[in-house]
Design a protein that fits this description.
Helices cover 11% and strands 30% of the residues. It has 296 residues and is mostly beta strands. A hairpin with a 6-residue loop joins strand 1 and strand 2 (32-36).
């Protein structure tokens, strides 16, 4: 019963618009919080209960049943909160690997040894060490509950619990761990479970596909394909199209000049830049009494 109540609370808080569940930022730690009434909780604490243990990339005893059936996560609020981790082609996609008969839980991105690998979103370092087949590996936890993983690097440039911004270099590309050559193994996870990075990243334009992500439980888990059914890991349902408000178009406004008026005086009167005022009135060289001056 307690687990059910917790799950309901999580889904309720995450479904609230920002006007009702206000996101706040602790400037000292960089941690973001949701606040609803008297409740103040870290964003990722909604899903991880402040569990920042760096002993394992994935919790093996965690069932997919523990994941919410569906929810919406805001990835970014402005462009400074995103950076493409490595701008290059995918050499191996997410999905089932027939050659090795096992799932591939991320995408492999071509690079050269020593190339800088950058944090995709702002967050906190949960893991920065050698992790089995991942080699030199970094796992970042992001405020909205997502985690990104960067594997096979030749050198680590961050430490556990370090706060990073989008675009910060977390390590240098390499071929450590179980690797057939220099590349970045990149994963996107939620509650330790991976889903296809191409749900959110466009490797043709090196951009973010959406600012809001719709996550469905069916996006998780990789099974061996049957028959000739093609693997479909394309961003469609996951994208929530946002309609951004267009800048308000102010109606034109005019001022009737009086004797002694100048561009400078009129600009000061309406608190606008004199050069802008002149740009609005390119045909007027000298102001006379009665002249219509456009001020907007």
């Amino acid at each position: 019963m307690r687990l059910l109540a917790t799950t309901i609370a999580i889904l309720f808080v995450m479904s609230l618009p920002l006007g009702e569940a206000q996101a706040q930022k602790d400037t000292a730690s960089g941690t973001r919080f949701y606040k609803e009434g008297e409740m103040r909780v870290k964003e990722w604490d909604l899903f991880y209960h402040d569990h920042m243990d760096g002993s394992a990339v994935r919790l093996r005893n965690m069932s997919l049943d523990s994941l919410p059936d569906e929810l919406v996560l805001r990835l970014i609020t402005d462009s400074t909160q995103f950076c493409f981790p490595m701008k290059n082609i995918i050499t191996s996609p997410y999905g089932w690997r027939e050659r090795w008969q096992r799932p591939h839980r991320g995408v492999d991105i071509l690079l050269r040894t020593g190339d800088p690998v950058r944090a995709c979103f702002p967050g906190v370092v949960r893991i920065a060490r050698v992790v089995g087949g991942y080699g030199y590996c970094v796992v970042l936890r992001h405020p909205n509950g997502l985690e990104t993983l960067y594997g096979h690097m030749s050198k680590l440039l961050v430490k556990p619990h370090q706060i990073v911004n989008a675009g910060d270099i977390v390590g240098l590309g390499g071929s450590t761990g179980h690797s057939t050559g220099p590349h970045l193994h990149f994963e996107v996870r939620f509650q330790y479970e991976p889903f296809d990075p191409e749900w959110i990243l466009d490797f043709k334009t090196y951009s973010l596909r959406t600012r809001k992500l719709h996550l469905d439980k069916t996006y998780f888990g990789i099974s061996r394909p049957t028959g000739r059914r093609p693997q479909a890991f394309k961003a469609d349902k996951s994208i929530i199209k946002e309609v951004f408000d267009k800048p308000k178009q102010h109606k034109e406004a005019y001022y009737t000049a009086r004797s002694g008026d100048t561009f400078q005086k009129i600009a000061e009167l309406y608190n606008i830049n004199e050069f802008k005022l002149r740009d609005l009135n390119p045909s007027i060289k000298k102001i006379k009494s009665g002249t219509k001056i456009r001020i907007r």
